[in-house]
Amino acid sequence: MALYGLIGFPLSHSLSYKINNAVLKRYGDHYVIFETKPEELFSTVMGLKVLSRGFNVTIPHKKSIILYLDHLSEDAERIGAVNAVKVEQRTATGYNTDYLSILNLMNGRNVQTAMIFGAGGGARATAYALFRLGCNRFFIYNRTKENALSLKSKIEGWGAKAEVTEDPKSADVFVNATPMGMYANDEALIEFYLKGNYRTVIDLAYDLKGTSLSKLAKDYISGIEILIEQAALSIEIWKGIKVDRKEMRSALHENKG
Known about the structure:
22% strand, alpha/beta, Rossmann fold, 12 strands, 257 residues
């Protein structure tokens, strides 16, 4: 039996428990939610390095957790964000399956420009996936300009162009890299989105009943599918097995409502 889990804050909305345990319980393993405030991050990570074989990381820890890890995969280092950690003999290695999930779900779509709403770890991973697909110009909006400038610097370090903006810019892809859409406070997101013109939407927010953007976009990559894909990729890293995405998807719908 092995312990796996998720750290982040808040986690009352999380569906990770359902989709991960759908797979892990078959092996006698358990996936547990560890709601972790920023001031608790160090102690939680130190504890999980002893007790667990791996864990996922979500808002607001995807960047700050790097300080407490022993190693990073090459992609996680380039992105500057981690959402999956593998623990072996109390040594923690950080990976980024967020970017891989988006890379897989984009199915080779042609992307030259992207408008990114948000600038956290999810934004970094999505931008990197789009960069790998050939996107060479990014527009970034974030309430905190310092974080937007940090993402701009990261993107330019990969060799693409990036611009921080307060106004929406039309682009091939619109990325919602915030939790807006999961809750009721999405008016600012919708107003921003409707002022531009986009072929594809990547929505990191998720809701089994659908987010506001899911009802507006024609070509839509949902946060639910991203969640399932990154979770499956995480388990594949932890256990070295092939994961059936349909099994995870079925677990969500069995528990729906």
